[in-house]
Amino acid sequence: MTIKNTPRRRHVHGRTKGGKLSPRKQNLCDELLPQLRVSIPERENTLAPCDLFASKPAKTWLEIGFGGGEHLAWQAAQNPDIGLVGCEPFLNGTAKLLVAIDEQSLSNVRIHDDDAVEILEALAPQSIDRLFLLHPDPWPKKRHHKRRFINQRNLDLLAKVLKPGCELRFASDIPHYVAWTLKHMAMRTDFVWTAQCANDWRTRPVDWPATRYGQKALREGRPPAHLRFVKV
Q1: DSSP letter string over 158-196?
Q2: What is the mean pLDDT of the chain?
Q3: Three-class SS state of 99
Q4: Nearest Cα to Cα of residue 86 among 132, 127, 40
Q5: Which of 54, 71, 166, 213 is most buried, by CB atoms within 10 Å?
Q6: pLDDT digits (tens, 9 = 90+) for 83-93
Q7: Is beta strand 225-231 parallel, antiparallel or unpaired with respect to 191-193?
Q8: Catalytic positions, written as ranges
């Protein structure tokens, strides 16, 4: 595994750091994060995600914007034979995931603590077996809609890296963003929405643990939608 000591930082909308980290979290960011950080190759090369792990996993899953890392850590613990790559530019969220990795001795997690588009552009075609985009920033103001992750350019990148027959999972508790996502996905011929009835998107599958954002939404009376799309 190649260590990326001085990560490039592209423009990322929103905050990349919150309050001061505790000494433990700061130490994990200083000592553990460089061991897990994904090294982005030069533009003429592609990134094979299975090569990021000492024992190459048969499958690799990618989570874009893992927040505090609750979902990613759960998936890693439940699926030790699968490699998990998480993208999150917010340092405090990355620090929370590092705590979980340290406490649970998770060896199948790698982190890209920068813009997710950077790693999507670098990944080899059809190299990801499952994608997660859970509770992304809805950018509710109309003038900010262009900042939403779901757009046709980013969907092109997701379609490039995801293997045929594999899943893209999306969750949001913002009805307008759910409608926005369904509208953009309906324009595609390379993704198919799997829902056959309302319960398919109203009910969270058992292998899809709730994130803190999802739990907060439920407490505030906003039941999330859980959408699953299959790459054709």
Answers
A1: HHHHEEEEEEEEEEES-HHHHHHHHHHHHT-SSEEE--S
A2: 92
A3: helix
A4: 132
A5: 71
A6: 999 999 999 99
A7: antiparallel
A8: 137
Largest CA distance in the chain: 49
**Which CATH architecture fits 23-226?**
3-Layer(aba) Sandwich (3.40)
* Single-letter amino acid code for the residue at 80: P
End-to-end CA distance of the chain: 31
What sections of the chain are H helices per DSSP? 23-31, 33-36, 70-78, 91-104, 116-122, 152-161, 175-186, 199-202, 212-219
In the chain, the percentage of residues whose pLDDT exceeds 90 is: 86
Q: Against a cut of 0.85, is the pTM above it?
A: yes
Size of the chain, expressed as the number of residues it contains: 232
Q: What is the CA radius of gyration of the chain?
A: 17
Burial of 105 (0-12, 13-18, 19+ CB in 10 A): exposed
